[in-house]
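=== RUN LOG ===
request id: a7f3
mode: sequence -> structure
chains: 1
length: 351
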Amino acid sequence: MDSNALRIGIDGRKFPRAKELGPFGLLERAKDLGRSGVFFRTILDYVPDLDAGKLAEISRHAKNLGLYLEMGLGKVNPFNTAEAPEVRAIGDGDYLLGMTRMIEAATNIGCTALWVDTANYQRTEWGLHAIDRFRTDVDWDDQLEATRKFIAKLGPVLRDSGAALALETHEEITTYEIVRMIEAVGSDILGVTLDLANVVVRGEDPVMATRRVAPYVKKTHMRDVVLFPRDGVYERQIRAIGDGVIDWNGVLGALKAAGPYPNFTIENAWGDRNDIPLDDPAWQAGHPDLAQSELDALRAMSDRYLASVAAGERPGPYDYYVDYDLAKQEGFIERSARTLQRVANAINQTA
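=== RESULT ===
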């Protein structure tokens, strides 16, 4: 394999027909598409009882196909764990035990960087309350502290298993907060799953966000975005990498400067939208680390996108996903992979 070639895989939850294909079909389809592996969002998605024989069979199938295999766990915010009853169930009612069993099962098949997140994006029409950062029954700072304590409780099993969590840059948490949490619990047990489509929801510039977390990145969710003003907010829509406005040269350059590239997982997300109320005082007050320079960068990204639409260079905001059939969904992955590899090649040539 070319030492400069990236390892680019698919997301086992968001890939088209994922449930129909199942774990073995997903691995085979990834191979058919020339991809390098599969990122199964949680180990319970495909082996809900953690059967060791079934997990070993999936692992062997991946190795036989020459593919990498990645696994995840789920929610680590105790104020959000009620939305993952399957984890509590696998622990016989004990969420911490459920997570412990999942960690042990994953590391037994060689998966040691384990995806986790803090909450969900709920409903677009709920405004600020669509994101758990703005819950009124519990402050976000209290949620972060509870998350830190829970991760610390997992520390012994993580260290014994040689594993680490990879906390996603999800819609509700900032990169500043993730870095502080890593510093609090230790980078040996906590790293990052980098999803740049999410950092913009928190008012962060993708390149600057990457620079902040680059030393800790263990996994990725890769997709592009466009931003455009609508009804007093900026709407984020997902695009294939290269079809949006993220500076991928800056992103890959920051990752390369921090060390070896991680595996790049292309996350298909058909019609995924988020509202970003950049000018809302309540929204701004909920982001103590907010940088005006990064807000300006996001507005500039939006302006560039609208200019390209006006010039006929890009489809309009609601034209991209028209007739988005299976071939186009899989084409999303191929275009994304080509762009990532092209940018990586250019960075290598410059170096």
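=== NOTES ===
The chain has a mean pLDDT of 95.
Residues 326-350 form the longest helix (25 residues).
=== END ===
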